[in-house]
Amino acid sequence: MNIRIEKTTNPKPLPDKDDPLVFGTIFTDHMFIMNYETGKGWHDPRIVPYGEISLEPSAMVFHYGQEMFEGLKAYKADDGRILLFRPDKNIERANNTNRRICIPEIDPDDFLQAIQEIVSVDRAWIPEKPGTSLYIRPFIIATDPFLGVRPSDTYMFIIILSPVGPYYPEGLDPVKIWIEDEYVRAVKGGIGEAKTGGNYVASLASQVKAHDEGYSQVLWLDGVERKYIEEVGAMNIFFKISGKVVTPMLNGSILPGVTRNSCIALCKEWGYPVEERRISVQELFEAAENGTLEECWGTGTAAVISPVGHLRWEEKVLQIRDGGIGPLSQKLYDTVTGIQLGRIEGPEGWVVEVK
Ligand SMILES: *Cc1c(COP(=O)(O)O)cnc(C)c1O
């Protein structure tokens, strides 16, 4: 793929080294754009100055939500190399999402090339302080100017970049999570396993409710019985119970996280029994009561590993480890971030260098 590059003539100042880089608030100088049209395919890949895009108010994405997104990060290694973490997994998931919501797939090599070139153009924006990285947000929107429900015939694929610090202001301090028993996020057969905005809009009302009660995230239960644990806002969830690592199995309504997959692989490598299965809230609260619930943490690209210190379910409150981070959560965080920063050798193919 031949990507045309138009550099900005008006670069923005880079953030100050001591800027806290509040997640998702600062964008770099450039963005990648590529268009799709039925009959023509994906075409006109280009890197242009970051800025506004123009769409008709009738563009289908505004009315029927045909859009998808991905999220991954670029890291600056100690030796100056720029590393991506398992981008092939994000690209594979992107095309799974595309198939589910009738967006044309993107050639995986072109997708990776687009990520590599845009990161390379804005490489000066990759922050270097511990815990920081360059967040990469690829997304696709349906752009046909048309009111009526059908897949669009035109799309834009865009990649924007954002230098980020920790996702939660708490950092590695345990978060408080609200178990939602009123609303549901997704059901089997729906779009829960696709990374698309529709899942997030479905979650807003509970998130507001949870925030008002002093909780930072919502934990979703299954949409049918509201008994089994699914996942947290933008994270998959793990428990350590009686020495075993337990996480909800991918059942069609859970987002298959790359960090989830990586944690399972590492825990297995370290010899922990890992169970991907249904786990009810009842079982979890019983494990807490009989003292076998050892740790609880969320996994996701944005937060990496986020220890959970406090869960609320109806009127019951569960305090885990007196609010501190557990040893396995800490080891996972150190190992995953160590691999991402090129300090620890991970499994074959987990890091990809941007030249
Ligand atoms: C992106 C996302 C995750 C985490 O996936 P990673 O690939 O680990 O970043 C978990 N749940 C939801 C709903 C997500 O959108």
Distinctive features:
355 residues, alpha+beta, D-amino Acid Aminotransferase, Chain A, domain 1, D-amino Acid Aminotransferase, Chain A, domain 2, nine-stranded mixed β-sheet, globular, binds pyridoxal-5'-phosphate
What this model shows, in words?
There is one protein chain. The protein is an alpha+beta fold and 355 residues long. It folds into two domains: 4-165, Aminotransferase class 4, branched-chain amino acid transferase, N-terminal domain (D-amino Acid Aminotransferase, Chain A, domain 1, 2-Layer Sandwich); 175-340, D-amino Acid Aminotransferase, subunit A, domain 2 (D-amino Acid Aminotransferase, Chain A, domain 2, Alpha-Beta Barrel). Helix content is 23%, strand content 30%. The protein has eight helices and 18 strands. It has helices at residues 61-64, 87-100, 108-121, 197-201, 204-212, 258-269, 281-289, 327-340; strands at residues 4-5, 30-37, 41-49, 67-69, 72-76, 82-85, 133-142, 154-164, 175-179, 217-221, 229-232, 236-241, 244-248, 274-277, 293-300, 304-313, 316-319, 351-354. Strands 1, 2, 3, 4, 5, 6, 7, 8 and 18 form a nine-stranded mixed β-sheet that branches. The longest helix is centred in the first third of the chain and has 14 residues, at 87-100. The chain is globular, with a radius of gyration of 21 Å. The two termini are 16 Å apart. 41% of the residues are buried. The model has no long low-confidence stretch (mean pLDDT 95). The structure holds pyridoxal-5'-phosphate. The site of pyridoxal-5'-phosphate has 15 residues, from helix 6 and strand 15.
